[in-house]
Amino acid sequence: MKRTASLALAALFAFALPAAAARPSDDALALVPPDAVAAGMLRVSDLRTSPLAARLFADFDRATVDGDAARFLAEARLHPIDDVDLVVFAATDGGKGKALVAFEGRFEPRRLAAAAAARGAEARTAAGATYFLLKDDRQTGKRGGGAVAFVSDRLLVAGSEEGVAAALAARAAGGTGFDRGAGLGAWLERVNGNASGWLLVDRTKLPEAKGSVTLSGNDGAVRNVIGAMNLVSAFTLEITVKGDAIRLAGAGYSDDTETRELLEDALRGILATMRIAAQEKPDVVSAIRKFKVASDRNAVTISGTLDGATIKALSAAKAERENARAAGSKAATK
How far is CA 194 from the centre of its chain? Predict the structure, then answer.
C-alpha cells in the first residue's frame, strides 16, 4: 500500500491553478458528493509562500526522491511542490465509503497516463472518461483498490474506484451541487472562503462516541474536547497562513445548551493545560491567552493566532516533554 500510495501521491501532487480560474467543470469543490460526511480544502499555494511550510515540503521531497515515485515524477515531468495550488478531499459513510481527493493544477494527461500504465495501472472508463486502477506491488496481479483519473490539464481526481467513477460522472453532469449548497455544502457559508484550509464534518453521520465526557483528570483535556465534539451536530475548522503566522479557528454547532456548555468548558480546559505546560515560557503563555472561546445559541467557537516564534517555542516544548517521557520510560524498565 505504501508503494501504491506513493504512486497516487506522486500523481496527485501534480496540479496547480487557482480555483477562481478553473472552468466550472474542473472545479474540485463541484465534485464533492453532497452526502459526504466530511469535506475539506487546502490551498497549497498559501503554504508554499510561508516560511513555516519549508520543513513540510522538505519532508515531502525526501519521501519522493527514491524508487518508483521518483521515476514517476521524472517521467511525467512533475514537480509536486511547485505545481500544486489547491487540494479538495471528501469522504462518505464515516470514511468507509467513497473516498475522493481532487487536485487542481497544470499537467500533461497523456504523459501521466503513460507513466501510470507503465507501472501496471489498468485503464478503465466511466462517464466517457478514463481512469486507472493502481497496482498493489505487494501482490502480483492484484490491484490496490485505489484509482486515479487524469481528467484534464487542470484537474486530477483520486481515491476509491467508486469515488473516482462517481466524480467523473458528476463532472460530466456539471457537478454535484456541493459548491452550491447541496448536502454538506450547506455548511460552506460557515467557513471563510479565503482561508488557507478548512474542514467540514457532519457529526450526525459519524459513529456515536464511546464512553462519557468528563471534565476532570490529569490528562483529560484533549479527551474532553474530543468527547464534547462527538456530541455536536457539526463542526468546522479553519487555518489561515500569513507569513510566519497561523490563524486557527474552530466551531462546534449544537442546539443543545448543555452540549455547548460542555464544549466551552472543555476548550477552556485545554487552553489552561497548554498554559501550564508552557509556564516557563512567558511569550508562549501570552500567545495562548490571546485565544478566545465564545458561545452563542448555535455554536461554540475558538480562535487565535500563533506567530512564528510561538510555534517554534511550542514545538520545542513538545519535544522536551516527549524526551522526558521517553527517558522516564527507559529508566522504569531498568
Answer: 16
How many whole angstroms separate alpha carbon 71 and alpha carbon 66? Answer: 8
Distance CA 161, CA 284 (A): 46
Which residues pair with residue 302 across a beta bridge? 250, 293
Q: Look-up: residue for cell 501510470? A: 116
* Strand pairing category for 38-43 and 99-104: unpaired
Domain boundaries, the chain: 2-180, 208-331
| Environment class of 204 (CB within 10 Å of its CB; exposed 0-12, middle 13-18, buried 19+) | exposed
Write the DSSP string, 225-279: HHHHHTTSSEEEEEEEEETTEEEEEEEEE-S-HHHHHHHHHHHHHHHHHHHHHTT
Task: Collect the ranges in the chain with pLDDT lower than 50.
Answer: 1-24, 63-65, 141, 209-218
CB-CB contact of 88 with 200 (8 Å): no
pTM of structure: 0.78
